[in-house]
Specification:
Length: 421
């Protein structure tokens, strides 16, 4: 392929049609700004280099947060606001707020952005779906937020609601694609069942779906027959086998307790049972989501039992700690720290099930489902009550996996048609 030519895919998912545009020349100035032939080029960079003409003469809205940056860590807000060809008129913030400073689950208020003076509408407050009033001053709305590859992370749910609102109010919506930090090959877990769809389970996809936000957007628009005027600006140079550290991109914490790129693997393993508030996942201590501990666990025995399972890509170390805040604040927790030894073979969702199952087997007098008001939250995250019921009934992890295998196989078939890379 000639160095002066890049073959780009800009996908328009309007009703049932997808259009492909190719062969865009890139200026020398653009090449200097981004190393096109080595590092991954983000959707936002692709857009600014090649496709700004899509929004000339249009009023632009932007859904983003602190993770919406280019490869030089410049905010998409600033990139848009300073670009003379982009008329940025409104901003929209997800869970944790547009600057990422709000604690998980806390409502976010509307505000005025102090830097640009633009209105910031909250999509995690009184409403989670953009209203007609919120979209009144925009013709096209962009979404640029880094996801973590985890079905229960609320940002992709916010994206789904945005696409639905865009279809309802006849607005164009553009997704600036970003890497799945866990890669785009491995898929594991169950599928969300009817009655359990929520912001932490917005799509009928596997818990580890192995898709980018652009691919999920295509999936949602088509599978629900929304007919939104959807455009996905793809990345360049990203390959499905890439983990985050292979992209050449710096990591920006996507939320307060996801400080490092590899936290995305730990949160998938422990964030599930963390919803129960009976086993600590480490939130409130120095390494969030790297632990599985409780006041009633014997650390050495727990580590020994888990290591005996020979789970791929992970070892368990006995640990004692006292959380500084959140659940179990100032209580002495005993359990294990997870140490991932191979990110490609590690199966975080399955590992989380093994941790729960082992805790229940070793400590039958301790009910990990004791906090009754937390079970509904756990079931929403898990996509149904099937896993809860199976664990309570003594099922093995293998038996639990067999329960969802047919629906997972069906998802994998559907998923193929929406993959962009």
């Amino acid at each position: 392929m000639k160095k002066s030519i890049l073959f780009l895919l800009v996908l328009f998912a309007c009703s049932q049609q997808t259009h492909v545009l190719k062969t865009e020349k890139v200026s020398g100035q653009a090449k200097a700004a981004v190393s096109l032939e080595k590092s991954v080029v983000l959707g936002v960079e692709n857009f600014l280099m090649n496709h700004v003409d899509l929004v000339r003469g249009k009023r632009v809205g932007l859904v983003t947060n602190q993770s919406g940056v280019d490869s030089k860590l410049k905010s998409t807000i600033d990139l848009f606001y300073e670009n003379p060809d982009i008329n940025l008129t409104a901003l929209y913030g997800p869970e944790h707020g547009i600057r990422g400073d709000v604690f998980a689950g806390h409502k976010v208020s509307d505000q005025t952005d102090p830097k640009t003076g633009l209105p910031v509408y909250s999509l995690y407050g009184k409403t989670r779906k953009p209203t007609e009033e919120m979209l009144a001053n925009v013709d096209v709305i962009f979404f640029d937020i880094q996801d973590i590859g985890n079905r229960s992370y609320t940002y992709i749910g916010t994206m789904g609601l945005l696409i639905e609102a865009a279809a309802e109010f006849n607005k164009e919506v553009v997704i600036l694609d970003r890497p799945n930090p866990m890669g785009g090959e491995a898929v594991e877990g169950n599928i969300v069942h009817e009655g359990y769809f929520s912001l932490v389970g917005y799509y009928p996809v596997a818990y580890r779906h192995g898709m980018t936000i652009g691919e999920i957007a295509k999936f949602h628009n088509s599978e629900k027959d929304l007919g939104a005027k959807l455009t996905v600006i793809p990345m360049l140079n990203w390959k499905r086998e890439m983990l985050w550290q292979e992209t050449g991109l710096p990591w920006v914490p996507t939320s307060p307790h996801v400080p490092y790129w590899n936290t995305v693997f730990y949160i998938m393993a422990t964030g599930t049972f963390g919803e129960l508030h009976t086993i600590s996942e480490g939130v409130g201590y120095t390494s969030p989501f790297e632990f599985a501990a409780a006041t009633w666990i014997d650390a050495d025995n727990f580590a020994k039992a888990l290591n005996k399972l020979n789970l791929p890509g992970v070892l368990f170390r006995p640990i004692h700690y006292k959380p500084y805040y959140f659940s179990f604040k100032d209580q002495e927790m005993k359990g294990v720290q997870l140490h991932i030894t191979d990110y490609r073979t590690f199966k975080p969702f399955i590992t989380g099930l093994h941790i729960m199952k082992t805790a229940m087997d070793l400590y039958p007098d301790q009910d990990i489902f004791a906090e009754g008001n937390r079970i509904s939250s756990f079931n929403r995250v898990m996509g149904s009550d099937a896993i809860t019921n199976a664990l309570k009934n003594g099922a093995s992890v293998k038996e639990i996996q067999q329960q969802w295998q047919d629906e997972l196989n069906n998802f994998l078939k559907i998923r193929k048609q929406y993959l962009l890379y």
